[in-house]
Amino acid sequence: MGNHIKTDDRRISEMRNLGPACEKDFNEAGIMNAHDLIALGPEENFRQMLLGRMRSGRNAMCCNAAYFYAIYGAIHDVDWRSIPEQKKIDFKKLTASMRKYREFEQK
Fold first, then answer.
1. How many other CB atoms sit within 10 Å of the CB of residue 44?
2. What are the CA-CA distances from residue 69 to residues 14, 21, 93 (Å)?
3. What's the pLDDT tens digit per position in 66-103?
4. 41's torsion region: left (phi>0), alpha (psi -120 to 50) or beta?
5. Which value, to the nearest 10 degrees, does the dihedral of the CA atoms of residues 61, 62, 68, 69 take?
6. Residue 96: its pLDDT value, please?
7. Do 12 and 26 form a contact (C-beta atoms < 8 A)?
8. Neighbours of 84 (CB within 10 A)
């Protein structure tokens, strides 16, 4: 028997903390399922989601650190309110940095 790598083909909206609106945002960015989300990690998922929103003409300013919490929780299968405090601080800093350098701004 050969090695079989199991992929997580759940819909994003089937993951903890993420619903249909998040799934739409991720799908527009080319992130199609749980496997894709897990493989990219929270930071790259967030960045790709923002870029996808901007490409589709949607506002990215509404996306804040709470999105990071939800993504992290989905990847680690924990409620977004239960993620480690240091991760919350890190995600708030990263969000503030992205805003400062206009990563959210529509082009």
1. 13
2. 16, 16, 13
3. 999 999 999 999 999 999 999 999 999 998 887 666 55
4. left
5. 150
6. 84
7. yes
8. 11
Report residue 24 as tokens.
């739409």
Tell me, what amino acid is at 102?
R
pLDDT given for residue 53 in this prediction: 83
The span from the CA of 46 to the CA of 72, in Å, is 10
Residue 18 to residue 74: CA distance in whole angstroms? 7
Q: Return the pLDDT at 73.
A: 96
> Is residue 79 within 8 Å of 16, Cβ to Cβ?
yes
**76 Ramachandran zone, left/alpha/beta (phi>0; psi -120 to 50):** alpha
